[in-house]
């Protein structure tokens, strides 16, 4: 993203010039029907850019009694921003400043203009009036900061969303209580029992295999001299909380560059060394500890790992784990509890389902015997005498 006003080469100019980092409009008019200044982009402005700045004006010498002064940003197809600077019929200030900012999205070109807009009156010869506009300039705003690299595309992904209540009703139907589910009256104590099966299986499946797209990048802004950071104190937009038992990578970085891995474990012997520097080790107990403490605020603590499972308490709480894996295993446990003969069938299905998910998690890293492409044989060379 860029503020196009900071690049004079992009604009064709009428009655304006770019000096000392600002656009100055030279639109004094003498016996002129419509004096104005204008900037217009030469090429398409592109999407994702802006035109933004601070307008400063002083029209105290403006002595026409029939005209108004205007400022307008025009993105082809629509006005981006417009402002009336002075009109004799209004009590607008004759000097001041204001900010403007317009997106370039959707426009083939952009023009920025300021000038005198005469009021049409056949009885008055406008060209016989003397106009002295005064001072008018635009100071471009700085280019917006380049956004940093995004490490998580979205907080949640497209996995099926199944609530605790939906899972409970599905289990009840398969246990033979379809009528009770349809009228919303399960036997006393049964909802609590099924919820317990679901929670237990949900926790088991979470720890049994890590192929549920739970991995995220977590970031903490480090503070000079501070060694301890709360596990739930990351600054990411996603409200998910890191599970310290499922880590893939731990390190630090300066912005999006200068990445360094941290060594797991802080030997107590290290506490006798320097208390500040570039962190080299980490350890997770009640919170995350780094050693040594950073000397400045330029570093971020980065952890790639899984977030923890949802606590299933309310009916509308959504399962974190693959709902089909939870359903099959919870159903097997519930059927065994009620003494139904097909409990073992669903236990086998749950195991097979989990195995298929684990196999799929290897992606292109899987080894299939006989599938490797053999390199071409090297042709023999004749030995010369």
Strand content: 25-35%
What is the tally of helical segments? Answer: 5
- Class from secondary-structure proportions: alpha+beta
Shape: extended
- Indicate the low-confidence ranges by residue numbers: 29-35, 126-130
**Computed CA radius of gyration, to the nearest angstrom:** 35 Å
What does the oligomeric state look like here? single chain
What does the main sheet amount to? Answer: 5 strands, antiparallel
Q: What is the CATH topology classification name of the largest domain?
A: Jelly Rolls
| Number of domain units | 3
N- and C-termini, Cα separation: 69 Å
Strand order of the largest sheet: 1-5-10-7-8
Number of strands: 22
Mean pLDDT: 83
Query: How helix-rich are the residues, as a percent range?
Result: 10-25%
Q: What is the CATH architecture assignment of the largest domain?
A: Sandwich
Determine and state the CATH class of the largest domain: Mainly Beta
N to C succession of SSEs: EEEEEEEEEEEEHHHEEEEEEEEEEHH
Structure overview:
By secondary structure, the chain is an alpha+beta fold. The protein has 3 domains: 4-140, Jelly Rolls; 164-212 and 310-359, no CATH class; 215-307, no CATH class. It is 18% helix and 32% strand. Strands 1-5-10-7-8 form a 5-stranded antiparallel β-sheet, with no helix packed on it. Strands 2-3-12-6-9 form a 5-stranded antiparallel β-sheet, with no helix packed on it. A 4-stranded antiparallel β-sheet has the order 13-22-15-16, with no helix packed on it. Helix 1 (164-174) crosses helix 4 and helix 3 (190-208) packs across helix 4 (323-337). It starts with 10 loop residues before the first strand and ends in a 25-residue tail after the last helix.
């Amino acid at each position: 993203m860029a503020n196009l006003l900071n690049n004079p080469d992009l604009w064709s100019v009428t009655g304006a010039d770019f000096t000392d980092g600002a656009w100055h409009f030279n639109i004094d008019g003498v016996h002129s029907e419509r004096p104005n200044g204008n900037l217009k982009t030469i090429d398409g402005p592109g999407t994702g850019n802006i035109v933004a700045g601070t307008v400063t004006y002083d029209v105290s010498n403006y002595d026409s009694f029939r005209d108004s002064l205007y400022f307008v940003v025009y993105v082809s197809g629509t006005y981006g921003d417009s402002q009336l600077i002075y009109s004799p019929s209004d009590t607008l200030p004759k000097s001041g400043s204001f900010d403007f900012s317009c997106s370039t999205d959707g426009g083939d070109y952009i023009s920025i203009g300021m000038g005198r807009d005469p009021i049409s009156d056949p009885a008055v010869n406008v060209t016989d009036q003397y106009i002295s506009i005064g001072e008018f300039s635009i100071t471009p705003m700085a280019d917006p900061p380049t956004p940093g690299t995004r490490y998580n595309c979205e907080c949640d992904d497209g996995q099926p969303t199944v609530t605790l209540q939906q899972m409970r009703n599905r289990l009840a139907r398969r246990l033979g209580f379809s009528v009770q589910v349809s009228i919303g009256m399960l036997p006393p104590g049964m909802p609590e029992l099924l919820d317990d099966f679901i929670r237990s299986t949900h926790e088991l499946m979470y720890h049994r295999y890590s192929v549920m797209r739970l991995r995220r990048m977590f970031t903490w802004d480090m503070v000079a001299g501070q060694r301890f950071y709360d596990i739930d104190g990351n600054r990411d937009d996603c409200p998910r909380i890191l599970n310290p038992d499922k880590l893939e990578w731990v390190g630090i970085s300066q912005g999006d560059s200068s990445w360094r891995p941290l060594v797991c474990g802080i030997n107590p012997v290290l506490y006798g060394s320097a208390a500040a520097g570039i962190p080299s080790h980490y350890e997770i107990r009640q919170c995350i500890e780094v050693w040594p403490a950073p000397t400045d605020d330029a570093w971020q603590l980065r952890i790639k790992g899984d977030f923890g499972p949802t606590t299933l308490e309310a009916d509308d709480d959504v399962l974190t784990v693959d709902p089909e894996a939870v359903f099959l295993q919870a159903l097997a446990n519930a059927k065994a509890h009620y003494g139904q003969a097909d409990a073992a069938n669903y236990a086998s299905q749950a195991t097979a389902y989990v195995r298929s998910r684990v196999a799929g998690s290897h992606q292109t890293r899987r080894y299939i015997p006989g599938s490797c492409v053999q390199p071409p044989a090297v042709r023999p060379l004749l030995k010369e005498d």
